[in-house]
């Protein structure tokens, strides 16, 4: 169940972050990148630090979503 929550949180953060950054891609790509970034950040935080607190993992999910969107924009869309 927490995985679905992090996916939804990451998708929402990805969507809002993409609009704030002027990221002009289709919504499916933005939502998928946000969700994947959130899952990667949460799993990385849990593996590296052993943190399972809700606030820390939620912050990691949002940060991971925004980081993946930024990387996508820098590496793929600027070609």
TrEMBL record:
Q: Where are the bilayer-spanning segments?
A: 28-49, 56-75
Superkingdom: Bacteria
Q: What is this protein called?
A: GlsB/YeaQ/YmgE family stress response membrane protein
Q: Which organism is it from?
A: Rhodobaculum claviforme
Q: Which UniProt keywords apply?
A: Membrane, Transmembrane, Transmembrane helix
């Amino acid at each position: 169940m927490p995985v679905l929550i992090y996916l939804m949180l990451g998708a929402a953060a990805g969507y809002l972050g993409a609009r704030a950054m002027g990221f002009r891609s289709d919504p499916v790509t933005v939502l998928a990148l946000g969700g994947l970034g959130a899952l990667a950040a949460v799993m990385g935080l849990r593996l590296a630090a052993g943190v399972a607190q809700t606030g820390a993992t939620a912050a990691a999910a949002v940060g991971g979503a925004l980081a993946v969107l930024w990387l996508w924009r820098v590496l793929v869309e600027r070609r």
